[in-house]
Structures are given as C-alpha cells and as structure tokens.
Amino acid sequence: MTDPLLSELLDLALEAARRAGALLRDGRPADLGVAATKSSPIDVVTEMDIAAEKLITGYLSERRPDDGFLGEEGASSAGSSGIRWVIDPLDGTVNYLYGLPTWSVSIAAERDGERVVGVVEAPMRGETYHAVLGGGAYGNGDPLRCRPAAPLDQALVSTGFNYVTEVRTHQAAVAQRLIPLLRDIRRGGSAAVDLCDVAAGRLDGYYERGLHPWDVAAGDLIAREAGALTGGRPGRPGDGDLTVAASPGVFEPLQSLLEEFGAWHD
C-alpha cells in the first residue's frame, strides 16, 4: 500500500474491530438468550452495543482526535481532518441475543466523503474481512473474489427483513416472487456479513431495504473490491430504499426484478 494514511486507517480499524469483537464475544452472558424476563436480554444487548461503540470511538479518538464519527449508537461529530469513521458496533443484534454466530463489528473510514477503508470482524466465525479502495479485498489475509456470474436461476441470494410486521409482510411477498426465479434465498441476519459473503463467493447476491450507512459502509467497499457490483434502485447508489450487491451478471437482472416487484417501498 503506497498511501501511508490509508495504511494507518486500516491498521486502526483492524485493531478497533478486534478489540470490540473480543469485548462482545467475551462479555456475552452464556444464558443471555434464555434470561428470565423479556426486558433484561434486550437491555444487556443494548449495553454491550453501546460499550462496543464507546470502545471503538475512544480508541480511534485517542489516536486521531480530529476525525469525525457516525455510529449506530449515537456517535456523531463532524471532525476537521476530512476523515470520518462510520461504525456499527454490533451488526446482527438478534443473532447475538440468541447465540447465533452471524454477528459482526463493522468499521469504515471515509476520506472527504468517499469510503476508503472497510473492516468487518465476525468473531464467532473466526473471520476478519478488510478492503482498501483500489487495493482489493481480503478475508483473514487471503484475497477475496466474488463468484463468477451465474444464470439468475442458479443464483443463491441473501436478504433481510424488517422487524415491523407490515413492512416485513411486504418484504416476504417480494421474496415469494423471487424464490421461483433463483436457486434459493438465505437470511443471514447481518448485512455486513452478507456483503462479505458476496465478496468471498459464498453468495451470488444480496439485497435489503431499510439499511443505514453504518450497516453497509464497510461491507459495500469489501464487496466492490472483490469484484462485485453494488447499488440501489437502477441508476442510484445503495440507500435506505434499497441496497443490492451481486456478482456481475447477477446484479442487473436481480436489480431489475427488485424494481419490478417493488422491493424499494413498504
């Protein structure tokens, strides 16, 4: 890597994600998913989420005090350096609550509004993904490449569902129309991990409505650096209406179907 700033940002993101992942992994009560009351498990997850974000922002602020932040749990500051960190300290909270392994820490760095570094740490899967703009994508240090283009009817595609019943019902209707046209659909529960699975060739595509910048900032860069295409509705970048990532050859037909089926609205 020839840019020392990007090298520094990557090293910091990797270490911050590693520390937050260890906190979440080692700090999770063994009986969290079967706690006696409905409120206490959610409270514990929220506390862990906030603690992980504080760990990340504290670590990064000590080393780069002029940088800005955007975090799921409320971290927000403009900064003055031109660098902004976009953080999801715990992506896949329901998986975390239930003791499922597919949850992650997602940290991205933007320079003057452009994503330049992305790190996704998935502690229970023993996986660390990273990418630097123009430098390729890596999983546990090995280069990543998305799957070769498959016919859409042979594509394995992942998605996610909202927790509001009315929204989820419409999303299920979209999935019902898609399933006969694909190999199958998966539901992983962590947008960041799904995007990395596209990068690693474990999925042919992924789509979801209702995501936030911190959900996708790191994973989107990792997927693109692995050769995948990413976006939203046709001609638009991914946003809260729709996020799509897929191997070339799968991306456009999948995106077209999602537009036709109204996956971009509730």
List keywords for this structure.
about 270 residues, alpha+beta, eight-stranded mixed sheet, five-stranded mixed sheet, 13 strands, about 40% helix
Description:
This protein is of the alpha+beta class and 266 residues long. 38% of the residues lie in helices and 23% in strands. It has helices at residues 4-27, 39-63, 93-98, 165-178, 191-199, 213-225, 251-261; strands at 68-71, 76-77, 83-91, 104-111, 114-122, 127-132, 137-139, 142-143, 156-159, 184-186, 205-208, 229-231, 243-246. It has an 8-stranded mixed beta sheet with strand order 2-1-3-4-5-6-7-8, sandwiched between helices. Strand 1 and strand 2 (76-77) form a beta hairpin.
Helix content: 25-40%
User: Tally of extended strands?
Assistant: 13
Structural class: alpha+beta
Please state how the strands of the largest beta sheet are arranged side by side.
2-1-3-4-5-6-7-8
Sheet-strand content, in percent, reads: 15-25%
The number of distinct helices, counting runs of at least 4 residues, comes to: 7
Write the layout of secondary structure elements.
Elements: H1 4-27, H2 39-63, E1 68-71, E2 76-77, E3 83-91, H3 93-98, E4 104-111, E5 114-122, E6 127-132, E7 137-139, E8 142-143, E9 156-159, H4 165-178, E10 184-186, H5 191-199, E11 205-208, H6 213-225, E12 229-231, E13 243-246, H7 251-261
Parallel strand pairs: 1-3, 9-10, 9-11
Antiparallel strand pairs: 1-2, 3-4, 4-5, 5-6, 6-7, 7-8, 11-13, 12-13
Helix pairs in contact: 1-2, 5-6
How would you summarize this macromolecular structure in one to three sentences?
The protein is of the alpha+beta class. It contains 7 helices and 13 strands.
